[in-house]
Amino acid sequence: DPVNNYPEQLPKINLIAPVVPKKLFASFEGQYVSERTSFLDTTVAGYFVANATLFVPDLSHGLSLSFSAYNLFDKRYADPGSAGLIETAIPQDGRTLRLKLTYRFGREK
Q: 56, 66 in Cβ contact below 8 A?
């Protein structure tokens, strides 16, 4: 028996390119998940989701900044539920935005 909830295909691509050399980078990630079978033997459709990020690695003295968009194209998709849940498919979030500020202590010179 094949394992439920396991996609047969799961390709992923991740590209990173400098927008301003050593100052600003852009990245794109795409992932395809093929259809899967739920615990009740129903089929949950496959989907493609894209994410994008702008990243400033050294804004100022150990401070970095990134802005990301997850599910960039606002794709409606679901993942199979598991035993014990009423739903056979669980809808996932639409487009989500995140602003992240990171400070690194004790930077090496």
A: yes
Which letter, b or e, does each residue of 5-44 get, where b requires 16 or more Cβ atoms within 10 Å of its Cβ? eebeeeeeeeeeeeeeeeeebeeebbeebeebbbeeeeeb
Tens of pLDDT, residue by residue over 6-22, are 899 999 999 999 999 99
Tokens of 22: 């050593």
Residue 87: strand, helix, or coil = coil
C-alpha 66/C-alpha 98 separation (Å) is 8
- Distance (Å) of CA 18 to CA 14, 24, 56, 70: 14, 6, 10, 20
Distance CA 23, CA 25 (A): 7
- Summarize pLDDT for 85-104 with one digit per residue, the tens: 888 899 999 999 999 999 99
* Neighbour tally for 96: CB within 10 Å: 13
